[in-house]
Amino acid sequence: EFSDFGCGYCRLFQEQTRPALAQEYVESGRVRWTYVPFVLGIFPNGDAAALASECAGEQGHFERLRLRLYRDQQGWKDEQNPRPFFSQLAREEGLDPRRFAECLDGEAAPARVQESTLVGQRGGIRGTPTFFVNGFRVSGNFPLDAFRDLLDLELSSLPRGAER
Fold this sequence. Notes:
The chain has 164 residues and is mainly alpha-helical. The protein is 57% helix and 7% strand. The strands form two sheets. Strands 1-2 form a two-stranded parallel sheet.
């Protein structure tokens, strides 16, 4: 999944569709799901949110901050300086504030965000959310049943025992 934290459709997917898919396919071991922060460059502070997620990941809390960044999107999206908001979220999610700030100021996390965005661009991504299911690119926030149908179709085409 390539997703931009500033994208409203991505937020809707995270809130309405992904939880059920995670429970039914990922937690059961049938599908391996990889989330890739992607910066389209059209959403205010989307790049800063991607950076914050990477810094949370350095402390093992990517998933927790990922959820908060979508849930609290309206709180940071139009901020002139979203850093204090992200720092507050990080504290609330149990991150070390000093390490988080050092990461935001460092070079490694921005380089990772840039690399993941370049990978997506090379893969032809022009909008978010975009998914690759067994190499097949799917763009958009599909309804839950349509996504289930796609995953079930792809899983049925795999040799028995080759799921994930």
